[in-house]
Amino acid sequence: MDTVLTVDVGNTTTRFGLFTIEGGDEAPELLGSCELTTQQPLTFDEARIQIAHALSLLPDRAPTGSILSCVVPALQDTWRRALGADGRARPLVVGPGLKSGVRMNYDDPSEIGPDRVADVVAARAAYGAPAIVIDLGTTTNFEAIDEGGAFVGGIIAPGVALGARSLTQAAARLPMIELRAPKRVVGRNTRSAMQSGVVLGEVARIDGLLDAMIAELGLSDEAALVITGDGAETIAALLRHRTVVDDTLTLRGLALLWVANRK
């Protein structure tokens, strides 16, 4: 049995997951997960401290392997070296050369972000094909898996928190707001008006883009719609489309990638 540490370094947060992996075809079992703020810039020693902190928050099992997804190019080598320090095995890094087991119908597969690859791998394994993944974070990503199980592309849009920050930074009189849905669409004060535009606007955008993707790809009504990331439960409850909330999708995808490449 292996114990694998999965690390998903995003622009805003870094998520850690600890999995046990049996031999054969059994799915990785999640023992625990935690989330820390992504530091930029980050030194080698600071990354080691974050790893030690994360492991102290997770079940007491020493990892025998690790895998890294990093969407911040300037941090990737630092995290790779830190994960391989202190006598640990050399980590796998999601990127060109790593097998995904998924056919990538994309102009340049090397452009696909590692978190997007992990989402597709996990969604296909858990929900089959066809499927669409919505991953909420600094960006809102949509990933499409066709009837044959191939990744056929997606959409990258500004995330809801980024939209709120942009409003505040660009307009001097607009305050920072709590990212929750207002009681009414038509706001009767500045904060509720902004919440309507940001939160309900994001919901309308997701619903509209899902309609367009399903129509363009000719997906059946059986297509799984999976939502993950920051505030997934809140957004899912407001969507017109019925979606499955899967908080650990990306981490499970990384564990599956480790299994596919461990030899």
Automatic annotation (TrEMBL):
Cofactors: NH4(+); K(+)
Binding site for K(+): 135
Catalytic activity field: (R)-pantothenate + ATP = (R)-4'-phosphopantothenate + ADP + H(+)
Predominant place of localization: cytoplasm
Record localization: Cytoplasm
Pathway: Cofactor biosynthesis; coenzyme A biosynthesis; CoA from (R)-pantothenate: step 1/5
Residues at which ATP binds: 8-15, 138
Protein name: Type III pantothenate kinase
The gene coding this protein: coaX
